[in-house]
Design brief:
- The structure holds 2 protein chains of 2 kinds.
- Chain A has no helices and 11 strands.
- Chain A is mostly beta strands.
- In chain A, strands 2, 4, 5, 6, 9, 10 and 11 form a 7-stranded mixed β-sheet that branches.
- In chain A, strand 5 and strand 6 form a beta hairpin.
- The radius of gyration of chain A is 13 Å and the shape is globular.
- Chain A starts with a strand and ends with a strand.
- In chain B, the strands form 2 sheets. In chain B, strands 2, 4, 5, 6, 9, 10 and 11 form a 7-stranded mixed β-sheet that branches. Chain B has a 4-stranded antiparallel β-sheet with strand order 1-3-8-7, with no helix packed on it.
- Classes of the chains: A mainly beta, B mainly beta.
- At the A-B interface, strand 5 and strand 10 of A face strand 5 and strand 10 of B.
């Protein structure tokens, strides 16, 4: 059974940084692309970033390009999202998901709050 | 950017009834690249349909997807109490993956 366990997140002031983690189990992590999707409070879904299994290709939404970095450690079966220069509008629940184009399986989500 | 417009915004039905949810795209999307999710309050989305019409693993056969071009439909043949949730469509036919704004399916 696929399991994606997220950690990180929390509250930060505008301009600050956070790193999210997503520990994967139940599948061959290195063989699968992974993604991050976010959902602002009471709003819809927004695809944030994705990376292939070997990290040879990455994708970023324009809204986070240059500020967020997706990475993965296949030896630790873990996906990361480094978020720098955070803005109030980055406040959302962030989900990791298995897949590059759509989410086959999802983590439980972690709340990131950016506020002064 | 391909814009996805879902209708209706809110659908009020009773258990046992048939639900029909619409997703229209601003540009033609290859059917393979259209998916549907279900999201319940406080939970992550769950993949229901991929390739416009293929059910994901473990999804009951009362859920079905159809459509092509710019018009896609999610149908729930007979609503069960656990089906009341928000439903999103999503496309990845362009490099920018986009979601619809969602349809809330509520108990009448």
């Amino acid at each position: 059974e696929v399991h994606l366990l997220q950690s990180g997140g929390g509250s930060v002031r505008p301009g600050g940084s956070l790193r999210l983690s997503c520990a994967a189990s139940g599948f061959t992590f290195s063989s699968y692309a992974m993604s991050w999707v976010r959902q602002a409070p009471g709003k819809g879904l927004e695809w944030v970033s994705a990376t292939t299994g070997s990290s040879t290709a990455t994708y970023y939404a324009d809204s986070v390009k240059g500020r967020f970095t997706i990475s993965r450690d296949n030896s630790e079966n873990t996906l990361y999202l480094q978020m720098n220069s955070l803005r109030v509008e980055d406040t959302a629940v962030y989900y990791c998901a298995k897949g590059y184009n759509y989410g086959e399986d999802w983590g439980q989500g972690t709340l990131v709050t950016v506020s002064s | 950017e391909i814009v996805l417009t879902q209708s209706p915004g809110i659908l009020s039905l009773s258990p046992g009834e048939r639900a029909t949810l619409s997703c229209r795209t601003s540009q033609t999307v290859t059917s393979t690249y259209l998916v549907w999710y279900q999201q319940k309050p406080g939970q992550a989305p769950r993949l229901l349909i991929y390739g416009a019409s293929s059910r994901a693993t473990g999804i009951p056969d009362r859920f079905s997807g159809s459509g092509s071009g710019t018009d896609f439909t999610l149908t729930i043949s007979r609503l069960e109490p656990e089906d009341f949730a928000v439903y999103y469509c999503q496309q990845y036919g362009s490099s920018l993956r986009t979601f619809g704004q969602g349809t809330k399916l509520e108990i009448k």
